[in-house]
Amino acid sequence: MLMKNGVFYADMLIFSFIHEYAHCAAAIIAGAHSAVRSRGPFGNVLYLDPDVASVKKLMIYLAGPLSNILMAAAGIFAAEIAEGNIKQMAETAVYANIMLAAFNMLPFFPLDGGRAALFLLSSILGSRPAFIICGIFSRIFALSIFISGLYLVKYNLMNLILVADAFYFLYIFEREKHEFY
Q1: Between 20 and 30 A from 20 (CA), which of 40, 93, 111, 120?
Q2: What is the DSSP letter of 156?
Q3: Model's pTM, two decimal places?
């Protein structure tokens, strides 16, 4: 079981890097050469300068989850034609990519879904009120991730990653708050 968990977490890390590079590729395609990529504790993180147009930002944010969906589809195909350990590895890759896409599309900042929600709310309410609303829900989300991580540690020590994620989400939220105030 520990080996399966190790393979899954390794897949998550590898595919999260690919996910972030998909953001970078989309930024280049969109002409957002001001995009900056940095390494974070949970993979690469893409930071865009505030001068990048909102519609381009939305396209860039959605490129990561789209890459995970495409990799999951490729994994499904690979699992159908493979046998034995290769089939199991392909199935683990499918699961990891589906989890990354689904998690990243949750409507909480700084996830891609949160950034997309912020874009949509900003077009209706303006950027400051939208960021306040997203901030409230994102802080509640971070708190729930923190509590879940503490609870789930009894099942698997790797769930401490959730505790660290909660702090990281709050850190990124505070770091990027200046763009909206």
Answers
A1: 120
A2: -
A3: 0.80
